[in-house]
Amino acid sequence: MENFVLSCCSTADLSLEHFQNRNIHYICFHYELNGTVYPDDLGQSMPFDVFYEAMTKGAETKTFQVNVAEFEAYFESFLKEGKDILHLCLSSGITGVMNSANIAKDILAEKYPERKIYIVDSLSASSGYGLLMDKLADLRDAGMGIDELRQWVEENKRKVQHWFFSTDLTFYIKGGRVTKTAGFVGTMLSICPLLHVNYEGKFGKHSIAAMAAVEKMQAYMHSKRMLFNNPDPDGYLGTSPSAGAMDTGNSITYKYKQGSLSYLGRVSYNYADKYLFQFLFRSDASTKFAPANYWGFFPGVSVGWVASEEEFMKKLLPSWFEYMKVRFSWGRTGKDNIKAWGWKQLYSLDPSRGYGFGSNGGILQTGIKPGATPNPDAHWDNTDKFNLGFDLRFLNNRLSATVDVYYDINSDILNQNIGGIIGTPIFAGGALTEVNFGRIDAFGSEFSLNWRDKIDQVKYNIGVNFGFNGNRVREWPQSAPSYIQENSVREGASTIFPTYGYKVWRGTSSGDGILRNSDDIENYWNYLSANAEAAGTSPEYLGVKDASQLKPGMLAYQDLGGVLNEDGTQSGPDGRIAKTQDYAKLNKSGKTYGFTTKLGAEWKGISFNMMIATSWGGYRQIDVNKITTSSGDMLWTPDSFWEDMFDERNNTTGKYPNLGLDNRISGSVIAPSDFWSISTFRCYIRNLSIGYTLPKAWLSPLKIQSAKLSLTGNNLWDFYNPYPDHYRNMYCGTTSLYPTLRTWSLGVNVSF
């Protein structure tokens, strides 16, 4: 027989004599009786009759599982003797003691690498636990070795059937497993509870959890601005009396308060970890609305079905298809994103809105100015979120997949565009508070694939995440006819707007749209003049009405649009280049597509993780900025422009237009155009981390449980870069004041 010990916890419901006779070792749990802690040493420290009598008389009792240090000392006593260990823990569905045993195992594995320590979850309790241990002792005595025993118990532990009943509900009530009401009724009717430990090591198949909470917020603000006329600097002592005469017209006191109250809760139900249900709710009140509309109720429901656990599905699914979960959820949320007290008529003092009388007749005086027109009917807007998801695992759980499809309905949107609705009466004025009007539906899908495996001692994983999304405006205020290029929200359209801008005129000598000489200018002006003559207008370029004002180095744009007709259409080319009127669609939409790739590996305490982001779509362009001294224009701009800019004398083949000349024409430089557009494809290393977990043999003498060193970098390198001279990295935003920083961080994580 191999040199090993068969071990379990004291909760196996076997007597001391039985453990000794079958040569089964055990480690003691602990219990507390009236404030004194005792080991569960099978009646040695306290006889069972004394213990039960004390409980019957109302003694306070608690139980404690075995900690890591106790397991470490217990296991090491056998390892020092050169023995291997097979230890069965009390079911993990009941206690977390198995975690302590595994930690102790890992600590000792560094110290005794030649020894075997097997920790097995028995998925059993009480007498069922004892029966399983008794069977293992039989198999051991028949000559089965430790590896065979481990394999046998893993294959057969779910076959143990154990049921329990109790004639007394007192301690179920005291422990909270039975409510006081149910306990009273059960006692009156002499009901005996029948308990079953299932194949996952849990009592029964039903699980219920609940949570409730209250949130309250109050905000107060009190500000005062006092303006004094011509204070005497020599006599000012830092006080109001010494500051001179107060300008009452411009001195303002402002007080503000608001609050919110929320009740929230959640109830979850689980049957056999196969049928899942959850109900949650929020009931929110906000003083931003009138008292009649304070409250909004926002419920949510989710259901789940682990289909792969059904017997008929096990017969239908192939052997390599291990897991399939289907889930569906609906939930409603709300927003109160409006200004507070918009349901009341508010007023403010204005030094130039009052009428003067008497000696001040005809002179504007301080007066009361009304604020936005109130809307007492404003209420919470709503978002209904629907989600259908699938969780799948294949090939011995090496391959996993997640699929989510969602549809969101945003309705009763708190909208401030009511002033633009056709038919709004003029007396309403320009200041209007928000109204609940509008609906925008959002939809999309998300997918993830992950592969986990190992090659010898190297564990690795590869994951990919990607998705698609879009939206549609179902209801929106009808605005007056406007240029479609203005990207206004319109019913039937998407809010993922395309990018509009100029298309350059390619009739120049270089074919790139840059006016490089007098012939280019003459040809371009003739192009505009011909269109103007056909439309009955005169040629014009961004306010310039004479060809002599065009200079070499400027960009020429196509004449595409025209003035806006009453029906919202454009008249067509008219020989006049005007902002917005001559805009073209530079991309179909601002939607960006992409996926994220995650790579990871682990070997002998060394870990490696990397995230690669890849995307395309939308619109990106070379940065173009005004040449001014204003701090508002002090954006980060690449040197590429200045080094290769068209110059009539020194660089007639320059790649870029002369921005200094273009800046003379109002708005031409800051407008997007296809001249500046570049590829939208991005691929870069978003994140990389390398870590090393120190061996426990190094840490044990220092009483350190674990220690890990890590090096992490963000926004590291791009694999493709269309920007000239790579002046901007592809992980930078489309526009930014400064380039995105590449960062490195070094970390140390120590647990004692």
Blueprint of the fold:
Blueprint: E1 4-9, H1 16-21, E2 25-27, E3 30-33, E4 36-39, H2 48-56, E5 61-64, H3 68-79, E6 84-89, H4 97-111, E7 117-121, H5 126-141, H6 146-156, E8 163-165, H7 170-174, H8 180-188, E9 194-196, E10 206-225, E11 228-229, E12 245-246, E13 252-271, E14 275-286, E15 295-306, H9 311-316, E16 321-335, E17 347-354, E18 365-370, E19 381-394, E20 399-411, E21 414-415, E22 435-436, E23 439-455, E24 458-475, E25 500-501, H10 518-535, E26 540-541, E27 576-577, E28 584-585, E29 592-603, E30 606-617, E31 620-621, H11 640-643, H12 659-662, E32 677-678, E33 682-693, H13 696-699, E34 706-714, E35 743-751
Parallel strand pairs: 1-2, 1-6, 6-7, 26-27
Antiparallel strand pairs: 3-4, 3-5, 8-9, 10-13, 11-12, 13-14, 14-15, 15-16, 16-19, 17-18, 19-20, 20-23, 21-22, 23-24, 24-29, 25-28, 29-30, 30-33, 31-32, 33-34, 34-35
- First-to-last CA distance: 40 Å
Helix content: 10-25%
* Strand arrangement across the biggest beta sheet: 10-13-14-15-16-19-20-23-24-29-30-33-34-35
Shape: extended
Summed over residues and divided by their number, the pLDDT gives a mean of 83
Number of helices: 13
Q: Can you summarize the main beta sheet?
A: 14 strands, antiparallel
How many DSSP-defined strands?
Answer: 35
What would you call the structural class? alpha+beta
Rg measurement, Å? 38 Å
- Content of β-strand: 35-45%
Low-confidence stretches: 426-430, 626-635
Short description:
This protein has 13 helices and 35 strands. It is α+β, with helices and mostly antiparallel strands and 752 residues long.
